[in-house]
Design a protein that fits this description.
Strand order of the largest sheet: 1-5-2-4-3-6
Number of helices: 2
CATH superfamily: RlpA-like domain
Distance between the termini: 68 Å
CATH topology: Barwin-like endoglucanases
Largest sheet: 6 strands, mixed, barrel
CATH class: Mainly Beta
Number of domains: 1
Strand content: 15-25%
Order of helices and strands: HEEEEEHE
């Protein structure tokens, strides 16, 4: 009887093992499509700080890490999302310039959309106005517990 029970359990667990993909397995068809990946949250919250330089409409893009954006956007106010701009942890690879992000303050559920055009040492460094929008009108040194998601560039008007 014990052999029969072991055999049945082995069959049962082998079906479960086949249903759960391991690292490096081929992505199953029910996985998110490339468009859906923009809506997936990054698992760990990040820190958001503010910098008054991003509030200056006449700030020059050529003086940021994303100077390659200068031909289309000479000044900060040329970005459709201005003043919701700033720096991000994933810059300087120049391919990450002009990325559109949705930041959500997990303490008050306020969200903003920003365009990143500069480097931030940790998390995001955004304009003071955008920071206040994210933090219910309050300006504090930094926010913790902020979820971030990459969203399509069209959301930022790019």
């Amino acid at each position: 009887m014990i052999y029969f029970t072991t055999f049945i359990l082995a069959l049962f667990f082998s079906q479960i093992a086949r249903a759960v993909p391991a690292c490096g397995d081929i992505i199953p068809p029910e996985s998110p499509t490339p468009v859906d990946q923009f809506n997936l949250p990054i698992p760990a919250p990040t820190v958001v700080t503010h910098n008054k330089k991003y509030d200056d409409p006449h700030g020059e893009v050529k003086h940021t890490e994303c100077s390659k954006l200068y031909p289309q956007h000479h000044r900060f106010h040329n970005f459709p999302s201005f003043p919701r701009i700033g720096g991000a942890f994933d810059i300087p690879p120049s391919s990450n310039c002009g990325i559109c992000w949705k930041l959500t303050n997990l303490k008050n559920n306020d969200s903003i959309i920003i365009t990143t055009l500069d480097h931030a040492d940790h998390g995001f460094d955004i304009s003071e106005e955008a920071f206040k929008d994210l933090n219910g009108g309050h300006l504090v040194p930094e926010l913790h517990h902020v979820e971030y998601r990459r969203v399509p560039p069209s959301v930022c008007g790019l």
